[in-house]
Amino acid sequence: VSHVPSTAGPSIASATVLVRVTGPDRPGLLAGVLSLMDRTETSVEDIEQITIRGNLDLNLVVTVRGERDLFKELLLFGWEQGITITFELVEPSHTPMRPGIVVTLLGRCLGPSELGAATAAIASGRGNIERIIRLSREPVFSYELQVTGGDVDQMRSALLAASQQHAFDVAVQREGLHRRAARLVVMDVDSTLIQDEVIDLLADEAGVVEQVAAITEAAMRGELDFAASLHERVALLAGLPESVFARVIERVRLTPGARTFVRTLQRLGYRTAIVSGGFTPVTDHLRTELGLDHAHANTLDVVDGVLTGRVVGDIVDRAGKARLVAEIAAREHVALDQVVAIGDGANDLDMLAAAGLGVAFNAKPAVRAAADASVTVPYLDAILFLLGVRREDVLASE
Ligand SMILES: [Mg+2]
Questions:
Q1: What span, in angstroms and rounded, lies between the C-alpha atoms of 39 and 69?
Q2: Predicted model pTM
Q3: With contact defined as beta carbons under 8 Å apart, do 205 and 240 qualify?
Q4: Cβ < 5 A residues, ion ligand 1
Q5: Which of 77, 195, 265, 302 has the greatest number of beta carbons closer than 10 A?
Q6: DSSP string spanning 246-299?
Q7: How many other CB atoms sit within 10 Å of the CB of residue 313?
Q8: Whole-angstrom Cα distance, residue 169 to residue 377?
């Protein structure tokens, strides 16, 4: 073993230090701190900063090699700027970025009891909350919690129990690049994008409200499947002029927040689609009206401007919706786990399951139980918060 020639002097002890800067925020504080570090040849391992109501909390992990002047310089700088700077020796090994989860909390009221229940649920699954971001105060409160470690399934079920007990919405998603990438949002139409059920509006125009309601109830009792109930209900519309759709479209009411939701998604680069167990005249209208990228629904047979009471081609039912989601995703070159599907009915269960994020929107209990996330506030744009979009960003894009 020969000597290893070395030009280095005796090894200089190095220390890893957490530098914490707190106080009233003002432009140039971070730049000032960094220039002192630059001058003293300090290397910066990590920076995190938050500002709440004008108060700065800046944390830097730095490695200091023998050059202790940094601390004197920083204390002087802090004194000059009227801010507090503290130092703490920390472990040199940096904290690895563990893949974590993102927990979104949503509610009309998210006070100490709701937030306490949610954080206790995370703690019960041994998760560690690394960061909390407030996304919105209006029309609902929402927070995003970044959590690492712990048992995800345990946290998920504890959070679900807490959310039911304290009446707030919760979504648990794996953190990852897919959350940042542009994605595809596929929505159900009736009672999701719009407040109405189009078949009921058509029945009203045709004067067959009771008959249609009876079939709907039979389907809900499980006596008829969707396809059979669709065929029976459409048969009742035979003889209606095609022009009935102009009146139905006038009566359709968008869900509150629908325009804001779609517009914000578009500005963020999302593709948007609707898949409906309803009918193409309405979905085609909505596609044009909102500038959606895709719209699919059932096509009614029309002869000489009159509905024949038959459906043309494949019907869009529960399986059909899931198939369409896969087809649209493939056409848009978006992986299924980057698809967000939103719906309220049993018909939507398969597409919610197929999507990376299935959102039950003011849905029936069975749908809520099966979905990845459930939103019970009546604003469609509240779903933006599940995607990590802040209210300020929504307003800025208006
Ligand atoms: Mg629906």
A1: 10
A2: 0.82
A3: yes
A4: 188, 190-191, 344-345
A5: 265
A6: HHHHHH--BPTTHHHHHHHHHHTT-EEEEEEEEEHHHHHHHHHHHT-SEEEEEE
A7: 8
A8: 8
Which of 28, 387, 381, 361 is CA-nearest to residue 182?
Answer: 387
CA of 350 to the centre of ligand 1 (A): 13
Which residue type sits at 196? D
How far is C-alpha 346 from the chain's CA centre? 21
Token pair for 339? 């698809």
Segment 32-67, tens digit of pLDDT: 999 998 888 888 888 888 888 889 999 999 988 765
Taking the centre of ligand 1 as the mean of its atom positions, its distance from the CA of residue 102, in whole angstroms, is 27
**Tens of pLDDT, residues 142-159:** 999 999 999 999 999 999
How many residues in total does the chain contain? 398
Amino acid making up residue 251: R
Residues 6+ away with beta carbon under 8 Å from 62: 16, 17, 19, 37, 42, 43, 44, 45, 70
**DSSP 8-class letter at 197:** -
Kindly state the tokens that stand for 34: 């960094």
